[in-house]
């Protein structure tokens, strides 16, 4: 007879959500399970004990992670998982809790984003508080030993001054690198954000938390193995930041030609304004790429925000079309990666996605993935220079740096669960209902951008 009882290892957040990670099932005996690596499990769970704030985990004195009578369940879909996977999930949750330990007082957050941000920023000391005035946010953060939070892409000078005067931390929010199925400009909710207490990844004027990780931290072998598996899966699934457009595409680059992908960017985007070098426009980038590689077959992919009409710029600029051999508007950029051998970019995330796939990357600006020995950098950043492997970069950028939130359970998660949800959403978006929903979302977003965009630009 089987008896089910509370497990000897628990994560408080999961218990409160009624989704415990561990149960003891006496009499189960682990029938059919492969023998665990006991030493590796003990090391992984010992690391969790060192990471956890007081009260965030419970470990009974008799706990043995390889105990055959323990059953581990994923909090996201309640399927049985290995104890190693359970340790990974617990580690992701504890890192999330560490980053949100200070209560957040957020400024300038529109109403449609507040539900999403509450799930991301709800921490050990309570959910975020949304405040209108920077001075009020600073005062409340001071009283609560909290932090001020702003969107990095907004004008932040007033908030920075208020934080300095009150002597409270200021963190900046931005989208993560594995974001959603659909564009943020179309008001699609993200599965990942970054919360950066030092700067922000696309502003090389100062170090970001991501740069600090890459410059200073040694990444354990187990984390590198996880990063390698994640990288392979991202490539196999054709996953990108936004996952828009069909993943299959007709051949664009002729057989035998050197395919060179030039991704278009939004020219007034913060990543260009802060991170670009001498080359600051799509025309100038294409001209530079043509001069550097006159024999290449250049494929230009305009930015999806511009194509959709959400941001300023021409989807098919005549001069860009003249400089390129092909302009590809429709479909996913992931379909072009296998056809190309190289990417030239200012600061586009496509350069990072190309690195995952083994492409040659040339940067004309200073994106977060430049300066680590993986790219040809035409505008080097002197603070960087520590050689990093691709899996060290993946571990830093996709595991250690962002916050992930499962859109189904609203629990903190890791990139693997975020990717699971993205693939589910992508499959749904390909159905008739999904395509209809996407058209309605596009019409709504386009109307909002055309009505409110000019007002926002006048106020900025």
Short description:
By secondary structure, the protein is an alpha/beta fold. It has 16 helices and 19 strands.
Produce the secondary structure layout.
Layout: E1 3-6, E2 9-11, H1 12-16, E3 22-26, H2 38-51, E4 57-59, E5 70-73, E6 80-81, H3 83-99, E7 104-107, H4 111-121, E8 129-131, H5 134-144, E9 147-151, H6 157-166, E10 170-175, E11 192-196, H7 209-216, H8 221-237, E12 259-263, H9 270-275, H10 282-292, E13 297-301, H11 304-308, H12 318-323, E14 326-327, E15 342-345, H13 350-356, E16 360-363, E17 376-377, H14 390-400, E18 403-405, E19 412-413, H15 415-429, H16 432-459
Parallel strand pairs: 7-8, 7-9, 9-10, 12-13, 12-15, 13-14, 15-16, 16-17
Antiparallel strand pairs: 1-3, 2-4, 3-5, 5-6, 10-11, 11-18, 18-19
Pfam families: Capsule_synth
Protein name: Beta-3-deoxy-D-manno-oct-2-ulosonic acid transferase
InterPro entries: Capsule_polysaccharide_synth (IPR007833)
